[in-house]
Amino acid sequence: MGKTITEKVLSKHSETDCHAGDIVVASVDFCMAQDGTSKLMIEALAALGFTTPKPLRGAAIVLDHSSPSPSAEVSRIHSVIKDFSAKHAIELHDVGEGVCHQVVPESGMVLPGDLVVGADSHTCTYGALNACSTGMGSADVAAAVHTGKLWFRTPEALKVDISGGFTDRVGAKDLILRLVGDVRADGATYKSVEFSGETLPSIGMDGRMTISNMVVEMGAKFGPFPFDAVTSSWYASIGLSPTTGVTADDDASYVRTIDVDASDLVPKVARPDRVDNVCDVSECAGTDIDQVFLGTCTNGRLSDLAAAADILKGRRVKKGLRLIVAPASRSVLMGSMEAGIAGQLLAAGAVFVSPGCGPCVGTHAGVPSDGERVLSTANRNFSGRMGNNNDVEIYLASPETAAATALEGRITNPREV
Amino acid sequence: MADVVLRGRAHRFEPNDDINTDYIISGRYKFKIDDMNELAKHVMEDIAPGFASKVEPGDVIVAGRNFGCGSSREQAPRALKAAGVSAVLAKSYARIFYRNSFNIGLPVIECDTDWIVDGDAMLIDLEKGKVTSETSGRQTTFSHLPKTMRVLLNDGGLIPHLRKHGGFSFD
Hints:
Chain A is α/β, with parallel strands linked by helices. Helix content of chain A is 31%, strand content 18%. Chain B is α/β, with parallel strands linked by helices.
């Protein structure tokens, strides 16, 4: 019987012939954690008598969730993390380098066919790089950092077959929101979501990361794309040239196949306070918005900023509305400056905050006021997510919809501005 | 070895499905507070204000589908445990929360929960796979945990497991 990408990656890393349902102990290529999860990982590692990371390409910690630190308490946690990393040969990505799921891919530490775990639920983002990568808790990641191995239940796979071309101002975010809305928050729990189809060559690496990033919002463990020309040209852009990756066998077995025709997609919005509460933008257009947030590990990359700037250039955001932009990394920020995108956004009235998580998780930089409504390009809209639970409503959408909404001060179809 | 028989009062919440890790312990605390007993004072406060002062040692959380969805924060099961919660009963779990719970030694059980009423006196027999309400006399069974999870629970969690065996040892 043929194998899925997932079965191939876990077979190789466990040196077994495993299929969906099998529990294996597998070697891990790389591990990551962030400032909100590292402290517990460090405590677990200390209890294990840890010396240096055992995964093939080591381990990294990114200070991004509460960075630069907003308080003495957080600063002390950052200090503990920095001291520990230096002592134990863990790569540290300091304040301002960016959000972990952009910084780690840029660092070249994740390669096609890898098995990766990270103490952050959106570690599934590296599925875009043809890796089987998933978020776990601090103890699991500590175990993998210490031993180079971890136990996995080989997940069943769900196949998403994408056909047709995207239409104007519709893209990867609309596709993944539509999928999460259809599959629902627990529809892919414990499963791997594998992407395929004739449209893949037109989905660039930024868009693939947007899509893989959000598979966890349907409960999924992995979200791998196949290895193809888009993968190799993206690696070339960071100075690497992996020549092989993993693709699924033609006779691989899937629990379900979902066909998506990209040409049918329209701009999508996830309404409060569930990521799977998805509608067409027309159904909530006109809703007044106080803050628009462009950024995060879902949509803070160069092509996201470019898509927003294309709508906002030469115009001004609605008076009274805050447009907060957090570039996903320093190199994204520099790229946006070189391309003139940062200037266009600033001239339109945007507020830039440090590369990193920005206001996504409510720890700093852009906590909304009571009763406010936010439209964000992030991946979660749970009550209280952005640091204030007093009647704050969070809507999720694409960078294009975010830009159009910032212009009008209310949720707006990006095709109508 | 984890206790085989657990006893405590049932706590149900609204909404009952998709209770996410932000509701269990909000992200706004996890960066500031790393003392689990302090964090325990804030569990569930966004959907059930006052829960932390009501919950008693041994109590049981009862939920619907997809309990613990959202972030990977291990603080979620740890704070529940620190608050005195002895087990979670839910129809299904998000996978990261599920693993985290076993890793830190909190039993989380997948079973039908519609019949359990808030405040019921619950009795959970991990060995026999039985959940009983001593209040209503009703009962349900749950399937035996996979061996990997049983080994982890018996050893007191993942880190104690690795310390005991010097590596993974599920055979």
